[in-house]
Amino acid sequence: MTMKKALIFRGGWDGHEPKLVSERFAALLEKNGMSAEICDGLDCLADGKKLLEYDLIVACMTMSEIPREYERNVSEAVSRGVGLAGCHGGMCDAFRKSTEWQFMTGGQWVSHPGGDGITYTVNICHGANPITEGLEDFQVCSEHYYLHIDPAIEVLATTRFPLVSYYHAANKPVDMPVAWTKYWGLGRVFYCSLGHHDDVFDKSPSASVLMERGMLWAAEGKEYAEKNCLDRSRFENNAKMY
Asked: Full-prediction pTM beyond 0.90?
């Protein structure tokens, strides 16, 4: 069997520790028999054909801007079965001006009321999903991410808002997704909002399990599509997205 390959691109705001997080994720993937290539910056996304050689793309790039061509290359690769995964601001507070990126990833950060150091519970959504199998609710002390989300996502874990008094507290309490999956054509997408700092995954080991399983699940999209003879054309339409 051919070894699966992952591309991890990193950069943006240093406060999210993209170097440490990307190296942690590479180690998790390599532990599971995958090869992991880490790239600084976005130029590794310039060759759309090369992206198709990977089984998984992992985003560790906070804020910044992505050239339209690079965004299109990632979108096309994922639609053909390459997985996409990321955590915290490294994927869903990336490329704030790029609505296609937000459409593909399933959500966008908008606030973290109270800043860092908020203690909250991550509530696991129990069901048949292998990513959460055997996991129980757990505590985290970190930023409490409020996101605008795609209603099509499959929610794997949630957290309750509000914990901190801010303008949003005038509304009813809500269960905000913490981790989810979705599809983009033939591709699988996984996101987890934990990971403000790298040590979150040491302090809350269940967060590391979520990321590990989520990345591996996303990396199986191409293999699953081939095994089940799925045709990407059935997800396409004649509308021009650009």
From this structure: yes
How far apart CA 233 and CA 225 sit, in angstroms, is 12
Residue that is written with structure tokens 């996304």 in the block: 45
What is the rounded distance in angstroms from the CA atom of residue 38 to the CA atom of residue 26? 8
**Mean pLDDT for the chain overall:** 95
Count of all residues that appear for the chain in the document: 242
Burial of 53 (0-12, 13-18, 19+ CB in 10 A): exposed
Q: For residue 194, what are the CA distances in angstroms to 92, 115, 144, 217, 241?
A: 11, 13, 8, 18, 31
> Could you report the per-residue pLDDT of 28-46, keeping only the tens digit for each?
999 999 999 999 999 999 9
Return phi, psi of residue 145, to 5°: -80, 125
Per-residue model confidence as pLDDT tens digits over 185-209: 999 999 999 999 999 999 999 999 9
Distance CA 69, CA 100 (A): 12
Tell me the torsion sign for CA atoms 182, 185, 188, 189. Answer: negative
Question: Would you place residue 237 in the very low, low, confident or very high pLDDT band (cuts 50, 70, 90)?
Answer: low
- CATH assignment, 5-110+181-235: 3.40.50
